[in-house]
Amino acid sequence: xxxxxxxxxxxxxxxxxxxxxxxxxxxxxxxxxxxxxxxxxxxxxxxxxxxxxxxxxxxxxxxxxxxxxxxxxxxxxxxxxxxxxxxxxxxxxxxxxxxxxxxxxxxxxxxxxxxxxxxxxxxxxxxxxxxxxxxxxxxxxxxxxxxxxxxxxxxxxxxxxxxxxxxxxxxxxxxxxxxxxxxxxxxxxxxxxxxxxxxxxxxxxxxxxxxxxxxxxxxxxxxxxxxxxxxxxxxxxxxxxxxxxxxxxxxxxxxxxxxxxxxxxxxxxxxxxxxxxxxxxxxxxxxxxxxxxxxxxxxxxxxxxxxxxxxxxxxxxxxxxxxxxxxxxxxxxxxxxxxxxxxxxxxxxxxxxxxxxxxxxxxxxxxxxxxxxxxxxxxxxxxxxxxxxxxxxxxxxxxxxxxxxxxxxxxxxxxxxxxxxxxxxxxxxxxxxxxxxxxxxxxxxxxxxxxxxxxxxxxxxxxxxxxxxxxxxxxxxxxxxxxxxxxxxxxxxxxxxxxxxxxxxxxxxxxxxxxxxxxxxxxxxxxxxxxxxxxxxxxxxxxxxxxxxxxxxxxxxxxxxxxxxxxxxxxxxxxxxxxxxxxxxxxx
Amino acid sequence: xxxxxxxxxxxxxxxxxxxxxxxxxxxxxxxxxxxxxxxxxxxxxxxxxxxxxxxxxxxxxxxxxxxxxxxxxxxxxxxxxxxxxxxxxxxxxxxxxxxxxxxxxxxxxxxxxxxxxxxxxxxxxxxxxxxxxxxxxxxxxxxxxxxxxxxxxxxxxxxxxxxxxxxxxxxxxxxxxxxxxxxxxxxxxxxxxxxxxxxxxxxxxxxxxxxxxxxxxxxxxxxxxxxxxxxxxxxxxxxxxxxxxxxxxxxxxxxxxxxxxxxxxxxxxxxxxxxxxxxxxx
Lengths: 588, 282
Fold this sequence. Notes:
The complex is a heterodimer. Chain A is an alpha+beta fold. Chain A has 3 domains: 41-176 and 491-587, Dipeptide-binding Protein, domain 3 (Roll), CATH 3.10.105; 183-240 and 397-485, D-Maltodextrin-Binding Protein, domain 2, CATH 3.40.190.10; 252-388, Dipeptide-binding Protein, domain 1, CATH 3.90.76.10. In chain A, the strands form 7 sheets. In chain A, strands 2, 3, 4, 5, 21, 22 and 23 form a 7-stranded mixed sheet that branches. A 5-stranded mixed sheet of chain A has the order 17-18-19-8-20. In chain A, helix 2 (56-71) packs across helix 19 and helix 5 (135-147) packs antiparallel against helix 6 (153-167). Chain A is globular and about 90 Å long. Chain B has one domain (2-280). The chains are: A alpha+beta, B mainly alpha. The interface between A and B is medium-sized, with 30 and 25 residues. Chain B: Pfam families: PAP2_3 (PF14378).
């Protein structure tokens, strides 16, 4: 290109160049406006469950969700992991989108304080694993119900249930009706919420010699698929504990839930004076290693649960469980060897819950207050107390540890020094005298079918676990096997990780929870052995509450398990979300 | 439980022994067996390097199984979802052909037929005057296990039954078979299918030795195909595992054919030196 000479030519050139620049600037604006923004991408969630071998129900629920989520244009990935990995991811590492699992169960609605209060959003364990924060909407009723003394508690609890529905930090699916396979020719009396409470094994009665024939009756043998109890007996290791049953046999609390109320256990009585609770321990309590159990151990336990480093320095490493209960205690004072005084920050009704945590021996756990180090590196957030496998547990419970073979069996023996053995004050009549067997053995089996066969053959007295719906059928058909069925508070639920968008948006979670057809799951996933529910408090509820038409109910036709894409899309549009041409739910 | 497991194991030993006798009658002639008896020691000595290697790998496998599984959860890739996305409900479709007879047949093939399929060719090739095939097959078995173990360490995947895609016919009908499978394997070790790869390896060698054992080729073809189908019919493996298993079989076959001689030479060449070193020590 030749450059024109002379003034006119130069001007023409300049104006031409300016025009070109202007034009390209306009083009750039358009380009920038179109391209320099995040491209919307389809929402993709991963659903974590146990594999069907360990529990077939969550996987079935996940397939239902995959289908209805797909109708809503959401991409779903299924992620089966072992129980240990599941709880490690959810409770310790907060590394999940959605998970489907069973809550450990509860006796009092106050457990929600730990589960949903925003003060726990940074804590590990069953303390707000969802990262859910709703300061007035949830925290207020959680605080109110703890302190209410004038009959206002039920109002606060209703508000809680309503907030759970509205905000969906979790979506309750159903309360299963749990059945275990038993045979009653050696032991009978499988009551006391036996799948949820250690009392189930303590309230058994022995058949008299004539009834049981030639069978030896000194060993109670239970089949389990939970191999984690053969590796770890630490009551603070949440990823190894489902319901704290085995550790509940090894360790005693000050008070235990018996038939719905808290009864003195290590205590022989307690009394209230204002907000102070005076507790007197039973006489002559001892640990399995022979040392005396004193008020110093009790005071130690509550401080350890607050901070397992047992110092006032940083870092603070709270125990990943029992926090809702241990925080009820503002201070514990040992008055003498047998008397303690607790300052309780709650109503008396809720306050007694503080006494239901396991008491740990100071002389053993004091050694475990140091930060863990791996290969010379100190870890800042873990103490030995949380990672010790505790396979030589020193408890004070009615049974003590005898032996364990990893992945095979766990043997406990009767603690003849236990207070139940010589109980003469008329308390705890169902358990007085101690367990009616010398030895309690948990035998690991790779499948429930093997356990049912074991019970049928007389090798086992019962299954230590609830049977899956398909196995209930098998057990019903098996001769000599009985089913002990009980309702449970250990509800199945979908947990959402509210730390990341779009799951951090309550509208989004609520829309997701409305893709859950509880009636369909009752028949298909639970094969009828469950009560569908919204509420994390009451078992069940008004029989029609989960039906469509309810503001938080399934958007499709109830019981069909399917939803029309248009209906599902409308649900998310109302929540403020958009769809692309392909019908995919997209977010920036 | 231990007693029940023992019963299952004994039943396998009994059934497979009967099958081996039948297979021997059908496929191997008397002259070969007489020759085998006369030549036993020499042949054992020749086969020792290959068999020793196989035993070492199997022992390592059984000793490290639990640790390997834990390690696998830490470092491995979770690929169950990827496999499911890739093939969808293919295995569920296979299961739509379910009948009681098929379940009995495929369960028997999966447990007894498979063991017979793996053991018989060792015996048959041992009875050949030319011992090469035995060494090749043994090295190929070793390659299957060794590569399979590495894959199991790298990939964490549950089978279709565990993802609720498929029913578990065998365990429903024969619960005690579960005791066996859980004693020798973990549920996250499905990719690739070792049942498939070892069976196909046997089939490839049956083809290679078809002139010596034409009948065995026919038997192996039927059994290997049945084992491959059974892994999916019983809901244990994905189609992806099976295809990967066939790939592993091909690789192992190649390693067996090309590596057997070299391995024997390496060991027989090294052994005298090693023994001399030990002897010359004060």
